[in-house]
């Protein structure tokens, strides 16, 4: 199996705080890889590192064998045309219609005629079920529709790698089901490689081929969904089952209880 | 020793933000020009930044011209010099009030809007998503707005001065009875093209550049939260107003100061 993206011994810190400490990941071509973990451990940061928006302190991130952090700006921009990212907010341009949003990458990076662009955009919109919404403004879309429109924009240039940042966060069950189905269908029909960053356990277990669980600056578990379910790590089990207390404590670190309420001895 | 540390930290922060502002400017203007793509974007921004500021500029210009004619007349008439009302109004507008008041209004009307817009684009990840689509936000978002500001503000200042002179005419000639011939002819003979008009335009170009740069940088560098954007917008208006007034003194000293 060929790796599209390889991360080796990555260390990254921000304003003096270590986010990742010496971790390694493999994103296999044509598969869906999920990166899971509790909120606030910097899963989005991982996607920004992969896209070259942030630079690691040490370690190596390679896209098709080429190191991303040592690329010149022009080369990085060329490589980014092969990857694409679905932002949590959708990040649609609020001053353009849905149609123009999806046409945007095509108009920027190709010399296709307007009639070809129109066909392509409507096809992409058809794939996400929003052909009827082409003339709406992003503000007129519901949260789920905005994310689908953003997904249509993300696949406009037929990228090889697509990164989803919390695609299911804040979605109602129906939109969630639609998004799960879309991600799976796109991956199969377009032979995309997907990286999904999320903490929605049940959805991910159905679509991912391989899962990494991050916590405490490390990879604490990895494997196929079956292997993850069987994992004997208490941390992984707490995360999957959603127990309130466990290796990740319920209480934020604080002074001794007696000392706080009964006064210092 | 706390205060010493905070002085040091503030200095480092300030120097750092000057550096980032300079890098942003370089990234936006030193790039292969893409006229075909950028011209429509710039024209759209000239509409937003310039044309939509017209109303406030015209109204303020009219009233400032009217007030100056009224104030000037009451003083000049004591010396029988009300014929010099024309050059007084025209010179103060062209040399000082046109550039400075337009700049202050422009900072409040267009500068704050630019900061808020770019700050919100950052907060809603639109700038990041441009980058991930391999489109440089410095060229796509920053450059058109910078050029639009630099192009539209000098025109606004000229319109301000012209309307102000007409406002002076309205009060001085039509209302207070200054001779219409002397209002225009003395103005024509005492206003010098390069000394007064061109120097005024140079001032507005400098102000336009500084205001737009501050406004765009504050938005681009804003902390992407509602609090951060509100702080950035306030800073745009405060910093650019102070910069305009300070620069105005320097430029005036250079242009009209001691020979």
Strand content of chain B: under 5%
Question: Cα-atom Rg of chain B, whole angstroms?
Answer: 21 Å
Count every beta strand of chain B, where a strand is a DSSP E run of 2 or more residues: 0
Q: Helix fraction of chain A?
A: 25-40%
* Multimer state: heterodimer
List the domain count of chain B as a whole number. 1
- SSE string of chain A, helices as H and strands as E: EEEHEEHEHHHEHEHEEHHH
Give the overall average pLDDT of chain B: 91
Q: Tell me the radius of gyration of chain A.
A: 20 Å
**Count of helical stretches of chain B:** 9
The succession of helices and strands of chain B, N to C, reads HHHHHHHHH
Note the main attributes of this structure:
heterodimer, A: 265 residues, alpha/beta, Rossmann fold, 2 domains, 6-stranded mixed sheet, 4-stranded antiparallel sheet, 10 helices, globular, B: 259 residues, mainly alpha, 0% strand, ATP hydrolysis activity (chain A), ATP binding (chain A), nucleotide-binding (chain A), ABC_transporter-like_ATP-bd (chain A), transport (chain A)
């Amino acid at each position: 199996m060929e790796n599209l993206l390889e991360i080796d011994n990555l260390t990254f810190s921000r304003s003096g705080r270590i986010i990742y400490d010496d971790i390694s990941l493999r994103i296999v071509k044509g598969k869906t890889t999920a990166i899971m973990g509790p909120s606030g451990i910097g899963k989005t940061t991982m996607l920004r590192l992969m896209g070259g928006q942030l630079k690691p302190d040490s370690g190596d991130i390679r896209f098709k064998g080429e190191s991303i952090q040592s690329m010149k700006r022009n080369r990085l921009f060329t490589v980014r045309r092969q990857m694409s990212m679905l932002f949590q907010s959708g990040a649609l341009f609020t001053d353009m219609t849905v149609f123009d949003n999806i046409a945007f990458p095509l108009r920027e990076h190709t010399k296709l005629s307007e009639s070809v662009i129109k066909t392509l955009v409507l096809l992409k919109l058809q794939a996400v079920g929003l052909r009827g919404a082409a003339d709406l403004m992003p503000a007129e879309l519901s949260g789920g529709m905005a994310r689908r429109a953003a997904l249509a924009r993300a696949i406009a240039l037929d990228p090889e790698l697509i990164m989803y940042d919390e695609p299911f966060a804040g979605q109602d069950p129906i939109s969630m089901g639609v998004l799960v189905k879309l991600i799976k269908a796109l991956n199969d029909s377009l032979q995309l490689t997907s990286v999904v960053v999320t903490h929605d356990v049940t959805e991910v277990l159905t679509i991912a081929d391989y899962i990494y669980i991050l916590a405490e600056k490390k990879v604490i578990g990895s494997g196929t969904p079956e292997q993850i379910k069987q994992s004997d790590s208490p941390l992984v089990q707490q995360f999957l089952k959603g127990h309130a207390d466990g290796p990740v404590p319920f209480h934020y670190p604080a002074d001794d209880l007696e000392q706080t309420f009964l006064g210092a001895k | 020793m706390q205060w010493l540390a905070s002085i040091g930290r503030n200095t480092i922060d300030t120097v750092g933000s000057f550096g980032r502002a300079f890098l942003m400017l370089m990234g936006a203007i030193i790039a292969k020009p893409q006229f075909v793509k950028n011209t429509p974007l710039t024209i759209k921004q000239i509409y937003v930044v310039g044309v939509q500021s017209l109303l406030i500029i015209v109204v303020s210009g009219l009233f400032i011209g009217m007030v100056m004619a009224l104030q000037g007349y009451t003083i000049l008439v004591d010396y029988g010099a009300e014929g010099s009302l024309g050059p007084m109004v025209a010179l103060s507008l062209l040399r000082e009030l046109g550039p400075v008041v337009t700049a202050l209004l422009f900072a409040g009307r267009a500068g704050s809007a630019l900061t808020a817009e770019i700050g919100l684009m950052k907060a809603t990840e639109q700038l990041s998503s441009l980058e991930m689509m391999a489109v440089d936000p410095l060229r796509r978002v920053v450059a058109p707005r910078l050029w639009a500001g630099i192009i539209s503000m000098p025109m606004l200042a000229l319109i301000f001065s012209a309307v102000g002179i007409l406002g002076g005419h309205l009060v001085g000639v039509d209302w207070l009875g200054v001779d219409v011939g002397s209002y225009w002819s003395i103005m024509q003979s005492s206003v010098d093209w390069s000394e007064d008009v061109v120097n005024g335009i140079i001032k507005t170009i400098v102000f336009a550049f500084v205001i737009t740069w501050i406004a765009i940088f504050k938005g681009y560098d804003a902390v992407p939260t509602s609090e951060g954007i509100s702080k950035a917008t306030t800073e745009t208006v405060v910093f650019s107003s102070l910069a305009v007034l300070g620069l105005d003194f320097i430029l005036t000293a250079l242009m009209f100061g001691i020979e």
